[in-house]
Amino acid sequence: MTDVVIHADNLTRKFGDFTAVDGISFDVKAGEIFGFLGANGAGKTTAMRILCGLLEPTSGIARVAGFDVYKENEEIKKNIGYMSQKFSLYETLTVRENITFFGGIYGIPRKQLKEKGNALIERLGLEEHADKLVGSLPLGWKQKISFSTAILHEPKIVFLDEPTGGVDPITRRQFWDMIYEASSRGITVFVTTHYMDEAEYCDRVSIMVDGAIAALDAPAEMKKAFQAKDMNEVFLKLARGAKRGD
Q: Where is each ABC transporter domain found (predicted)?
């Protein structure tokens, strides 16, 4: 269990009589790119909020970066990065001001933050745009800056909620190159997406249907088990209630 950074066991969340997350169990290993898939309303966002320490489960067990979601949610927040489905930076601040602001929230010392900020701007090729308002930049650039800012403090885990929604295919591919680079540095990536082709980029994927995990495996193994040519076909079969081998 030493290399497991996310552990969930029979994790459940109810809202009155409605069960949004229904007894899900899984582990995520350090440095893994873990895809968390499902249709709208399947429960994946609720589960992610629990794992980020933002919502207490109704029952079950969950530990993130070694911390308990019931008692140590503040410690969880210190050890993770998070990128929202909705653009999470301040559009009325410049690129440099956003980096400084979020770096300060993450507790990065001022001198180190300046060095990290300059290195980030150079790595993204934004030297000429560093002092422009974020709101004036193309969506693809905004997403890259948002992701880079979310891992500026080198968290153990970064949670990405539909990070490539609305961007063009080339930018999506570039964004995934950034995810691979972060993973190579040991950062665990927990990502939700509705693009089934992006599931192919993950080490393992979990597919949720009606609040429960309907399948969990490496994409190649999942396609083989469901006799499917791609992950979109796997998803459609699961949505119809098909079993492995059907």
A: 6-235
Strands 59-64 and 4-15: antiparallel
pTM score:
0.90
Could you report the per-residue pLDDT of 112-162, keeping only the tens digit for each? 999 999 999 999 999 999 999 999 998 888 888 999 999 999 999 999 988
Name the residue ranges covered by the structural domains of the chain: 1-15+32-42+56-65+156-246, 89-155
% pLDDT > 90, the chain: 69
Q: CB neighbours (10 Å) of residue 72?
A: 17
CATH superfamily of 1-15+32-42+56-65+156-246: P-loop containing nucleotide triphosphate hydrolases (3.40.50.300)
